[in-house]
Sequence to fold (295 residues):
Amino acid sequence: MRALVISGGGSKGAFAGGIAQYLLEEEKQSYDLFLGTSTGSLLISHLALGKLESIKKAFTQVNQSSIFSNNPFVIVNKNGIDRIKINHFNVLKNFIRGRKTFGESYNLRQLIEQQVTTEDFNSLKQSNKQIIVCVANLTGNSVEYKKLKECNYSDFIDWVWISCNYVPFMTLATKDDCEYADGGLGCIIPIEKAITLGATHVDAILLDTEFQQTHRSHSRNPFDVLSTVFNFISERIVVQNMHIGNLVAEDYKAKLRMFYTPKILTNNSLVFNKYQMKKWWKMGFEHAKYKSKKI
Fold:
């Protein structure tokens, strides 16, 4: 049994899309399991259906308005570098409305529903492929894995959306009497889950560099501080996920092939620049080609 696992990473998901395109179209890989966290969950349904051009178009045409119904950020480009500042008006508006987060991401849910149709959902449900998304249950203090074949259409769209909700910048969703958020808060790359479900060959795409390359500049505002803290926590979770994943692969004698980003793509993965994401998609495809030939 073969599995494709894609990590979280916000806008960097475009890079993962390029890698997946190479694996499916050029290497002719066929996967039984598709597991995704956050941005990875946005990709896997289309990848399982072979709708590569459709998901590529979606990933390379989005912008901030495609994601946020209430955007808590102001993006300022200075010397070619995007920096995030607080949109004080939008944040205040959210708090006045009694919301629990700085911003809202209901536009993303609408976009997911447009991209994953009921026909797509039914085709996947009738296929022999398993589609699994990772979410964080904050009420239950646990990581949960939602299988498409155990959901109805509306619930599945909800779980994909919830898996992407990077709290506190995006919507904190309540479902089944529990508060849920981005799966990456607990598991950024679910390699262990793929193997325990029976995968003997795993291709895993991690939207980060293989070795630590970050030396962050000092924070300039509260959002910078939060971003730095969350990035630090995410990197610790990645280290843990990879350590456990490698141990489980050895224990189960599963073959694990890893794809990392060759360099730091961005320090602000909540900035959705369609021109940059087009470059990352192409970069991912070329990187997979290079690694494949090298192996």
